[in-house]
Write a structure and sequence with these properties.
206 residues, alpha/beta, 5-stranded mixed sheet, two-stranded antiparallel ribbon, 8 helices
Length: 206
């Protein structure tokens, strides 16, 4: 109706349909309310994918960096897309680098290089040849979260019932003029969600 009335261009609607998770598109463009209260991952699907941590070997890590307020989180996925390594901690940058080097080893890893993360990634790359930096912007974060949403809704990944599930459950999206903003509610953390998204990104592009 909006296209027929000249309010929206058909190309914009088609582009949104191809880029947004199905539940987000339906809520924003078809006025079909979501049962998830603004959660982009589909909460029933979040809980379908819960499994004990895998005993498999990691083939890729996703790492979200932080120092004191938030948490550094490293999540490793095995060849079946199951979380097989999980580390969440707060420490100095030097200790963070040493701990990540022990955890990641020679595995592929996608590490948050935004802001203070850039020199940390450069430091890790001197010793770990398979580390790739990922810079968060509004568009890159949107694509990362859409990839994670697709992996969850298609049951392509599994994760243990810990902080990962807690953060996925409360994660939200807001739609603005510049696109969809994915974020944790004020006062809560999204470090596990970001690390899992980075791991899925690395898994899909390995």
């Amino acid at each position: 109706d909006a296209v027929d009335a000249g309010v929206l261009e058909l190309d914009e609607v088609e582009q949104a349909k191809s880029q947004l998770p199905e539940n987000v598109f339906k809520e924003l463009y078809l006025a079909e309310p979501s049962d998830d209260g603004g959660n982009p991952f589909n909460q029933s699907k979040i809980h379908e994918n819960i499994e004990p941590i895998s005993s498999g070997e990691p083939i890729v890590f996703g790492v979200d960096l932080a120092k004191s307020v938030d948490w550094t989180v490293a999540i490793g996925l095995d060849s079946k897309g199951k979380v097989c390594r999980y580390d969440r901690f707060q420490s100095s940058w030097e200790e963070t680098c040493m701990r990540l080097m022990r955890t990641v080893g020679n595995c592929s890893a996608v590490v948050d290089s935004t802001g203070v993360g850039d020199p940390i990634v450069e430091r890790l790359q001197r010793d770990l040849p398979n580390v790739e930096g990922f810079h968060f912007s509004s568009s890159s974060k949107q694509k990362l979260m859409e990839g994670l949403s697709f992996a969850i809704q298609s049951n392509a990944i599994n994760y243990p019932d810990n902080e990962i599930v807690n953060e996925l459950d409360v994660f939200t999206y807001e739609y603005g003029r510049t696109g969809v903003k994915y974020t944790a509610p004020v006062g809560l953390h999204d470090d596990c969600v970001m690390a899992l998204g980075l791991a899925v990104y690395g898994f899909n592009n390995r």
